[in-house]
Amino acid sequence: MAKYFTKKGLEKLEKELEFLKKNKRMEISERIRQAASFGDLKENAAYDDAKDAQAFLEGRILELEEAIRSAMIVDEPEKTGKVQIGSNIVVGSSDGEEKFQIVLQEEVNVLEGKISYQSPLGSSFLGKKKGDEVGVETPGGQKIYKIIEVN
């Protein structure tokens, strides 16, 4: 199944994959080697922990390889002045100003302000332009955002 990424999002995955293969694999194999040198592997918690870390790492590598293999690149947004996938926006509300980037589901990172175009918040901004007001239903009730900037 194809996964959609922006060019930057795909590059980020490729860098993570390279780091995991070149650095993390060596680090974990060293942990396994050191833990194995402690003796009896049946009751060696350090060895079990290192093997668990290796299994998690290999699973993540497979996940990244599959995502990269099936990746479809979404073109960068055109400068239309309207909010679209890839847009960086600044919005104001009763809570102050917030910055968001509208991204594909695979690139969501709420801590970085990257919200999905499919989320209630992200989808309500799509197609809007600077100066528009957008109402979004939140758990605390209706919240009004005013779009201050669209890039």
What does this structure look like?
By secondary structure, this protein is of the alpha/beta class. It folds into two domains: 3-73, Transcription elongation factor, GreA/GreB, N-terminal domain (Helix Hairpins); 88-150, Chitinase A, domain 3, CATH 3.10.50. The chain is 40% helix and 26% strand. It has three helices and seven strands. It has helices at residues 7-36, 45-69, 120-125, and strands spanning 3-5, 71-73, 88-93, 96-103, 114-116, 133-138, 141-150. The strands form two sheets. It has a five-stranded mixed β-sheet. The protein has a two-stranded parallel ribbon with strand order 1-2. It is elongated and about 70 Å long. The chain starts with a strand and ends with a strand.
How large is the share of residues in beta strands?
25-35%
What is the terminal separation in angstroms? Answer: 30 Å
Shape: elongated
Output the radius of gyration: 22 Å
Helix and strand string, N-terminal first?
A: EHHEEEEHEE
Short structural summary:
This protein has 151 residues and is of the alpha/beta class. It folds into 2 domains: 3-73, Orthogonal Bundle (Helix Hairpins), CATH 1.10.287; 88-150, Roll (Chitinase A, domain 3), CATH 3.10.50. The chain has 3 helices and 7 strands.
Topology:
Blueprint: E1 3-5, H1 7-36, H2 45-69, E2 71-73, E3 88-93, E4 96-103, E5 114-116, H3 120-125, E6 133-138, E7 141-150
Parallel strand pairs: 1-2, 4-5
Antiparallel strand pairs: 3-4, 3-7, 6-7
